[in-house]
Amino acid sequence: AVCGHGCKYGECMGPNKCKCFPGFTGKTCNQDLNECGLKPRPCEHRCMNTHGSYKCYCLSGYMLMPDGTCASSRTCAMANCQYGCEEGNGEVQCLCPSSGLQLGPNGRTCIDIDECSTGKAACSYNRRCVNTFGSYYCKCQLGYELKYVSGRYDCVDVNECVTNTHRCNLHAECLNTEGSFKCKCKQGYRGSGFDCA
């Protein structure tokens, strides 16, 4: 089976037919499936969509059970947690719905962990980290774009001279470089390449 357009988060099952991994959708399995929008809803109270998955959490006064349902809890109601809580050994512990969130100083609300600045993010050398609330994603470095090349997605240099996204002077030549470009004034002109006289 050959999939000319590729299967980003899935596998090729037939000529240009992708079978997506759970949590992904689209012709090339490149889109995150928003499970929170599915019918029947996967969570009893609140649902938070994540990349390739989702998290359930309960309203204040309820605790999340292992099967994803929410059970009434008197002690949790008094804890006033932002996303729900769990009880153990007579103690109440507030919970955060994602590993990219941590309990704030008040022990009730969840604050974002910036994986990009803490070094927890795993992006390949040619990608840059972009922090999101509760998670992060890897984006191509400036001057590169994501393209499907020889069977996989990769960050490929953008030729600014061809795409006409350079800012070279009218009397200058554009020279493409890896991840960027240079401008050189034409013969008979002098300057930086951005300004030529």
From TrEMBL:
Question: Which SUPFAM superfamilies does this chain map to?
Answer: Growth factor receptor domain
- GO BP term (any one): cell adhesion
Q: Does the keyword Ligase apply?
A: no
Record-annotated EGF-like domain positions? 32-71, 112-150, 157-195
Q: Which domain of life is it from?
A: Eukaryota
Task: Write one Gene Ontology MF term.
Answer: calcium ion binding
- Give UniProt keywords alphabetically: Calcium, Cell adhesion, Developmental protein, Differentiation, Disulfide bond, EGF-like domain, Extracellular matrix, Repeat, Secreted, Signal
- Name any one Pfam family assigned in the record: EGF_CA
State the InterPro entries in the record. Answer: EGF (IPR000742), EGF-like_Ca-bd_dom (IPR001881), EGF-type_Asp/Asn_hydroxyl_site (IPR000152), EGF_Ca-bd_CS (IPR018097), Growth_fac_rcpt_cys_sf (IPR009030), Nephronectin_domain (IPR052235), NOTCH1_EGF-like (IPR049883)
Q: Where in the cell is it found?
A: Secreted, Extracellular space, Extracellular matrix
Xref: PROSITE patterns: ASX_HYDROXYL (PS00010), EGF_2 (PS01186), EGF_3 (PS50026), EGF_CA (PS01187)
UniProt similarity note: Belongs to the nephronectin family.
* Name of the protein in its database record: EGFL6 protein
Q: What is the lineage of its organism?
A: Eukaryota, Metazoa, Chordata, Craniata, Vertebrata
